[in-house]
Amino acid sequence: MPAVMDSDGSTMMRSEPVSCATDSSPTETPVPASLQSSSGPSASDMQYYYQYLYPFKTVFQWLNHSPKPGRDMSHRELAMAFRSGAYKRYNSYATAQEFKTQIQRANPDRFEIGAVYNKPPKDRDSILKTEMKPLEKEIVFDIDMDDYDAYRTCCSGANVCSRCWKFISVAMRIINVALVEDFGFEDFIWVFSGRRGAHCWVSDVRARVLNDFQRRQLLDYMNVLRQRNADKRLNLKRPYHPHLARSLELLKPFFVDVILREQDPWQNDETAAQSLLSGFHDKQLIELLKKHWKSDPGRSSEDKWNDIDVVASQIKHTSSLKKQDFFIRLRECKEDLVMATLYPKLDVEVTKQTIHLLKAPFCIHPATGNVCVPITEGFKPSDAPKLFVLEQEMEANGNNVEATSLEPYLKQFSTFVNALMKKEIFSKKRNREDDQDLEF
Fold first, then answer.
1. Is this structure's pTM higher than 0.85?
2. CATH topology of domain 3-222+347-435
3. What is the SS3 assignment for 354-387?
């Protein structure tokens, strides 16, 4: 029986698939139909992945903020979703080995991460529910490709390519700048959702301890674009908040390259009339542009965008003051259109509540078979390792995880976690020293 080196670096004997039985502590409840999947990796594929490839030790340390078992993990809720449609909440694990053993035994399609409570969630059935209080959890942001469907033309539905993935990359850039420059956060990582989105996990202590009201305030600051309606003018307040003014400057070059040139969403004249011209305030300008495009149909989105200024310059005004006001409002409408097409729209529910659960990094997407890996510089969805490819790589390289396509992502995540733990240990040591100084 060949030895297998697993993703945590320990050697184990490859054995028969582990049992699918689960422990009986929390009650299983039906999972929403939207979360169920009838295709993708098989149960035996998932057993193999959990047994030999999933980085349980590193994920445990990331959630625990320390290599030594502690409250941040022993009191942390994890939920499991099964291909049967069951959804098992309020699991918690005191050690990395228990975490690994129980996930392997249950063999879920995926598992999700929740809050740290004042008591171990697995004891929930033996205490009063009112005694269970969520204490902290990472701040999480979720962005999804379906929010850009009105403007992406290269793909549709669940399909994602390197071109439309730029929408997600640009959104991540905007959020990163705000997290660092506006909130001073440093310890965050982006994780591929497995199909067409990305999740940001902010692990700074200041972020983790925010209550629900504070999380909503942070969300309101970031989530300026509540609805991305292509047929309605955004009409943001002026002057722009400094965060929006900065975001606009970051988005402008991407608007030209991604929206106007690559996606070209307004080449169709009817679509342009509905979703481009609806962003402007002046009826005369709108009618003149429609007439212009009717005489020269099928102009590209970039041509149409340039036409706006050309046609606007031909409109006569009764006074210089009205002319100045017209062009100020025209500029503002164009700025709002840049924001409407590219500024990130966040999933409100994911961020605003401490108790909200979200899929763990390195889970397998049940429909695509993709590993939900950390997002590296220049990442695109096709880069994500697939489970069936990893199984082939393991068989071909003598069962060495380090020789698989998963290894660069494991290394990146491990580097992030190690840096986070060092910072936490240093912070706790400094706090102890400060307390000692106060005693004197």
1. yes
2. DNA primase, PRIM domain (3.90.920)
3. CCCCEECCCCECCCCCEECCECCCCCCHHHCCEH
